[in-house]
Write a structure and sequence with these properties.
It is built from 14 helices and 9 strands. It has 313 residues and is of the alpha/beta class. Bound molecules: flavin mononucleotide.
Amino acid sequence: MKIYVAPLEGITGYIFRKTFNEVYGGVDKYFAPFITPSEKCAVTPRDKKELSPENNKGIYLVPQILTCRSDGFISAMKELKDTGFNEVNLNLGCPSGTVCAKGKGAGFLPETTALTKFLDEIYSAGESEGVKISIKTRLGYFDPDEFYDLAEIFNSFPVSELIVHPRIRGDFYKGEPRKEYFAYALEHIKCPLVYNGNIYAEQDYKDLCDLFGTDLDPVMLGRGLITDLSLADRLKGKDTSDAAAKFRRFHDTIYHEYQKVMSPDINVLYKMKELWSYWAAFYEVNSRDLKSIQKAKKYAEYEDVVYRKVFGL
Ligand SMILES: Cc1cc2nc3c(=O)[nH]c(=O)nc-3n(C[C@H](O)[C@H](O)[C@H](O)COP(=O)(O)O)c2cc1C
């Protein structure tokens, strides 16, 4: 089976990807958190660094573009092609207020006429440039029934893969995914389809496969993979008896990698704290230790809790 790593802005940047690939590996595609082309600059120097081949060695990376302007999308796609990418992804799912207010991400979904024109333009450019364009979408903005029209629109373009996160914008990332709409997608979407949403354990994956009566392959993992870094290994049936050692190695590596490129301590610790907010439940960190991690301002304070109390060293 194929496993894709979901883009999580602020978390799955190049340092995460590099560390994950080094310690775990075994996933088939990494989707980079979105870049937003502006009129002045399609791909910023910061985006270039994030997506550069040196920083993404040995992995299959798909850059993601968030915009509602075809000229910006096409300029970014061309620049990305020049750095070696032959696949890009369109973000039609971001629920953030500021993004949606500008008609981007999930905010583009209700504008079906403009969306159709946009897709027409980017897919023509994609074909002439030889770049595949996949889409990551929600079911709709206001109402999941919007998906019926969206499905027809997506079916009229050469979408290389459609990743469906079966929620509407107002669901943000909460509640149960609206699985019945993914069942509709399985029946009606013509291009390769990828499920994404709330897979935290092997059982979640199995339940979904049972429900849909088919193996979800490929499947995209987001928060579940951050929470349990061995989840992809488990789903692929690998031996995970060394999961605790791998977790330690992952922790130490990413902590030191962030230190190489960030300062002062608090900036690195901000990154680590965000990871611990996912790890705490899975690794059964007690609430007092978690609070101490979240309060740490200096490496020494952080290391005292993590190494002495959590890892018991
Ligand atoms: C902190 C955070 C950042 C995210 N950033 C992005 C992003 O840059 N692009 C995108 O398409 N989705 C983004 N997402 C959505 C995830 O890719 C994924 O669709 C969502 O978390 C649901 O999948 P999951 O339940 O497996 O996590 C983000 C989600 C979170 C929680």
